[in-house]
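Co-fold these.
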Amino acid sequence: MEFGLSQEQEFLNDTLTRFLTEHAGLPRARKFADGGEHRAQNLWRGLIELGVPGLCIAEAHGGVGLSTLDAATAAQALGNAIAPVPFIATAVLVPRAIARAGTADQQAEWLPRLAAGEIIAGAAISEAGSGAREGATVTVQSGRLSGKALFVIDFEADVYLVADATRRLYLIDASAKGLTRRPLTTIDKTRPIGELVFDGATAQLLPGSEDPAVLADLLDTGRVLLASDTLGAARNMLNQAVTYSLAREQFGRPIGSFQAVKHMCAEMAAGLEPCQALVWYAAHAVDSIPGEARLTACHAKAHIAEVGKFVAKTATEVHGGMGFTDLLGLHYWFKRIGLNRQLLGSPERLREEAARLQNLIE
Amino acid sequence: MDLTFGSEYEQFRSEVRAFIDTHHDATPGSQGMRSDKSRAWQKLLIERGYTARTIPRDYGGFGGAPDILKSRIIAEEFAAAQVPSGLGGQGISMLVPTLLEMGTEEQKREFIAPTLRGEMVWCQGYSEPNAGSDLASLRTRAVLDGDEWVVNGQKIWTSTAQYADWIFCLVRTEPNAPKHQGISFLLFSMKTPGIEVRPLKTMTGDATFNEVFFTDVRVPKGQIVGRRGEGWLVANSILRHERGSLGDPNIMLTRLNALTQMMQTETIDGRRLIDEPVFRDRLMRIQGAVMAMRFNDLRLLSAKLNNKNANLAGMVVKLQGTELRHELEGLAIDVLGEVGVLYGDAPYLKDHGEWQYDYMFYLGLIIGGGTSQIQKNIISERGLGMPKEPKMTKDA
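Predicted complex below.
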């Protein structure tokens, strides 16, 4: 019995964290947010060298063939470093959908290029995960898509995975005729989010997605990865709060020696630490415990969203007025946690789904 | 990630299950720990190695090698079958491990076996009216007079004192030493002249605790564990033990399931309580938190098994576990509404009033065994490396 990360997963985490500490973090996120870049090319190239785009793609298609727990470890490291790079859709959700629901030809067409990081894929599955807002819905007639999809993850992409109103999945080229892309500015400027508008645009169906279990599994996986991203970001905020409290002096001593401040930090740690085990288990369940995957994914995302919200607020308060400034930049983590909370299901929706899964609703 | 225990252990699990099935009639149920049936059950469990598993045979235990997974399987199976897994109490859970570590050979032979058999029931004399969170400032003193310690002072929060045979007690023996170095750990009979036990009624209405008064209580000089002035070290090894056991997420799961069932059965305006969206959301929120604590518990088990330091994951259990349990019991009261505040012998009382009782009792456990505030000090200082609060000088 061994609960948690294997030695290889620890190694993956260390390698990725070392790379991100050197190349990502606040200055890089700020440059991305302010500079109007579409893709943080230097970071993306570095991640390609580390094999991140192909982390979960089978070796036969040029990937590394690792598990969702490995992906969750990577997502946590990326969230920790507020890395302005695509990951959840391009490296995990879209390849997973193609591998599970695509034909052999579709797999051969897309997976090697995704694994190599040559192309980036976005995922338009928000309506299935969070419900439809602003009239968003996608209908299909003879292979042509109409309507619109909001809150597309990894929006700066070359190809998109789109869920239609019947929960079938399609791939559509970013340059397809009849597809209009519109970025949606969110509070979080470290990750592009946007809208796809379809006007009879040609797309290819992933035939296996006739089985609704395919999309359901994608939502589980996406929720676990968003929870991991939040956990990474929240852990970083706690570390920053502790470090700041030891350096900042008022009344002649470090504010970290005041019990009021210590207890704020202890409450953050006490909330966060069990989240680590929760996200590990949920990630493992997605691959290996089918009967528990859906419920643990709902609870992992909902619970970690709540703890993350508390940490985001409390860590900011520990920094006092500085925490509120753009100068300190703590708000990038605050906003990353804020965006994750709503993507693919807010805590309230997820808890309702958890109740439904257990037949608690008549 | 490997959540399997392996075939050797699954075999062991089947053996435990078979034992429980075969011996169901011998289980003592809710009878007190002094009943013949309880003692016979305890004897059987020791013989089979299901309790006192790693305690040497010479001291009345089973004499098995330490095996974390087997202990875990035993605990899980007895809990699942709702069968008592042997006698508990502060003597068995706290004093016995301490004696094994710090006691003399004579003390181990004299005290451990009768304690395990349930013939010697203990209480713990630690807290005092002026020594709670700051336990090391305790004032009950013991002065050596010839071959005897003479003990004077008062203890409080002493559970089971009303029927304990013996007490393990912290006393100040070196009044001039720094406070942590002036304490000794004594063992003495509760029948010694000069001891008065007064029940202490709590908010639940029960007297689960007592105050214990000592007036010139004479204790043989040799009934000390560790040397004079080493009592704080001796006591600390036990406190570590106690904290771990408060806030057990697996017991919490049983309560959560009971609450879920109650919300599916009880109605308001003819609708099931679970059909109220706000109630349901609160239940699901607690379920998510309990889930996190259960997986955290698996992480701790794995760390213990693989000799890894779990650090913060272990430190947060008492704080999170007791707070969460209190919240869970409180939700049961809220969903029952006015029915939830019935108590005692009231008609319409649900589940024997255990929600109301546990809601109050768990507030006691948030405070007892190291308050939530003390836990936060430990987490911030030992877990996060933050400094201790500076000491106030007397003349400041």
